[in-house]
Specification:
single chain; alpha/beta; Rossmann fold; Four Helix Bundle (Hemerythrin (Met), subunit A); 2 domains; 5-stranded parallel beta sheet; 4-stranded antiparallel beta sheet; 44% helix; 15% strand
C-alpha cells in the first residue's frame, strides 16, 4: 500500500530542541532523546467515513512531532497502518450495498487526498492489515506456543495475565477496562474466556465474511491489536520512541498491543512514550462515526475552504485538549491565515530572528501549538502596526511556519 506525496520541509537556520511530551503511561512529561533516527508508529484509520476532523486533529499532532524531530536534524522513521478489514468496515459495506474492498480502497484514497491537502508528512511505511496477514499469523502461532494464547470455539485469544506489565499504558482499573472493552470492540461477556479482558488474536472464518489461510490457526482474519504489533515490530522493532493515536486508543488498543509485543519479545516497554490526542466534538458530543456527527476535510475543501485554514483551526487547540468544532473556529482560522499572508507579502518587516526560537520553544514544550501561533500573531501585529526594515524577515516567517507548523503562506 502506498502513502501520499511528501511536501518539502524548508531548512531553518540553527537547530531545534528535543521534544518534551506527555506520556500516558507515566502520566507526566518525558523528554524524548531519540538516536539519529527517531521512530514513531501512529495508528491509522479504519477506512470508512474518512477523513473527519477528529482524524485530522490526531494526524496533525503527530505531524508536529515529526517536524520537531526533523528540525533537530534527525531522520524520522514513521509507520502507519490501515485497518482495511474489520467488523465496522464490513458492517458499513453491507449497509451501503458496496463491496468491502471497494469501500476500503475508496476511503483510503480520499484519506490520502486529504492528508496531501493538509500537508501532513507521509509515513515511510503505510501498511494495510490485509497485506500484513503473512506476518501476523506467525506471531499468533508463537503466542499460542508460549502459552500466552488459547482457543475458544475456533477463535484464538490472548491471555492478558501472561504479561506482568499489563495495565501500565492506560493505568486503568479492571472495572474501567471492562467497561471500555465492551464499548470499543471487545467481548468481555463472552462465556469461556479465561479473563473478560482477553482480546481476540485470530477470528475463525465466519460465513459470508472474508477470511485468509492462517496455517495452524485455520482460516480466519486477525484481531485488531495484533495487526499493529506485527507492523510495528517488523518496521520499527521494540522500544521505539512514540506510539501515537487518539485518546480513545489508550485502552484497549495500545494497552493490548503493548502486552502482545512485550510477551512476544520479552522486552519492555514496547514504546518509550504513549502519546494521545484529544477528541473533537460537534454540537456538544464527541465527533464519531457511530453518532454520525462528522465534519469531513473533503467536504470543507469542496466548499472552497483553504486547507491551510483547516490546519490553523486544528493548531489553535492543544493536541491533548478535547474541543468543539464550530463555525467560529473556522472563521478565526481564516482571519488568521489572511492576516499572516498579508504580513509576509510585504518586502520587509520587523526582525523574525527570535520568532523561529519562540516557535521551537513552544513546540518542544509538549507541542504547544497555540503558543506557537500566538508568537506568529505578535510578529504579524508588529508588521501591521509599524513594519520594519529587515528584508529577509517575511521569508524567514514563511519558511518557519511551513517547516514547523505545516502551513503554506
Amino acid at each position: 500500500m502506498h502513502a501520499w506525496p511528501a511536501s518539502e520541509v524548508p531548512a531553518l537556520p540553527g537547530k531545534g530542541r528535543d521534544l518534551r511530551i506527555h506520556d500516558t503511561a507515566t502520566g507526566g512529561l518525558v523528554t524524548l532523546d531519540p538516536g539519529p533516527v527517531a521512530r514513531i508508529y501512529v495508528c491509522g484509520i479504519t477506512p470508512y467515513d474518512a477523513t473527519h476532523l477528529g482524524h485530522a486533529a490526531t494526524y496533525n499532532a503527530f505531524d508536529l512531532v515529526q517536524r520537531v524531530w526533523l528540525d533537530t536534524k534527525r531522520q524520522v522513521q514513521y509507520v502507519q497502518n490501515v485497518t482495511d478489514v474489520d467488523d465496522p468496515l464490513l458492517q458499513r459495506a453491507d449497509r451501503d450495498g458496496i463491496d468491502w474492498v471497494a469501500l476500503a480502497e475508496r476511503e483510503t484514497a480520499l484519506f490520502r487526498e486529504d492528508m496531501t491537502a493538509l500537508r501532513m508528512l507521509p509515513p515511510q511505511h503505510y501498511i494495510g492489515a490485509v497485506e500484513a496477514i503473512p506476518g501476523i499469523v506467525p506471531l499468533v502461532e508463537r503466542l499460542r506456543e508460549m502459552g500466552a494464547a488459547y482457543e475458544l470455539e475456533g477463535d484464538i485469544y490472548f491471555s492478558v495475565e501472561s504479561d506482568p506489565h499489563f495495565g501500565t499504558v492506560s493505568r486503568l482499573d479492571a472495572a474501567a477496562m471492562r467497561l471500555l472493552s465492551a464499548e470499543r470492540g471487545g467481548d468481555p461477556d463472552r462465556p469461556g474466556k479465561k479473563n473478560p479482558l482477553d482480546p481476540m488474536l485470530w477470528m475463525a472464518a465466519r460465513e459470508g465474511e472474508p477470511s485468509w489461510d492462517g496455517g495452524s490457526l485455520g482460516r480466519g482474519r486477525p484481531g485488531w491489536h495484533i495487526e499493529c504489533v506485527a507492523i510495528a515490530l517488523d518496521h520499527l522493532g521494540m522500544g521505539f520512541d512514540v506510539q501515537g493515536g487518539g485518546s480513545d486508543l489508550a485502552f484497549p488498543h495500545h494497552e493490548m498491543g503493548a502486552s502482545h509485543a512485550q510477551v512476544l519479545t520479552g522486552a519492555f516497554p514496547m514504546a518509550k512514550a504513549y502519546v494521545h490526542a484529544g477528541m473533537v466534538a460537534l454540537d456538544g458530543e464527541k465527533m464519531s462515526k457511530s453518532k454520525g456527527n462528522l465534519v469531513f476535510v473533503s467536504q470543507l475543501r469542496r466548499e472552497g475552504v483553504d486547507p491551510a485554514a483547516i490546519r490553523l483551526a486544528l493548531l489553535a487547540h492543544h493536541y491533548r485538549a478535547d474541543w468543539e468544532w464550530t463555525d467560529q473556529v473556522l472563521q478565526d482560522a481564516l482571519a488568521r491565515l489572511d492576516r499572516w499572508r498579508s504580513a509576509v507579502s510585504r518586502p520587509d518587516g520587523p526582525s523574525a530572528d527570535t520568532l523561529v526560537e519562540e516557535i521551537r520553544e513552544a513546540l518542544a514544550d509538549d507541542l504547544n501549538a497555540p503558543a506557537a501561533l500566538a508568537a506568529v500573531d505578535r510578529w504579524a501585529d508588529r508588521q501591521q502596526e509599524r513594519g520594519g526594515t529587515d528584508t529577509g524577515a517575511p521569508g524567514v516567517v514563511t519558511r518557519a511556519v511551513d517547516a514547523l507548523l505545516g502551513v503554506a503562506l
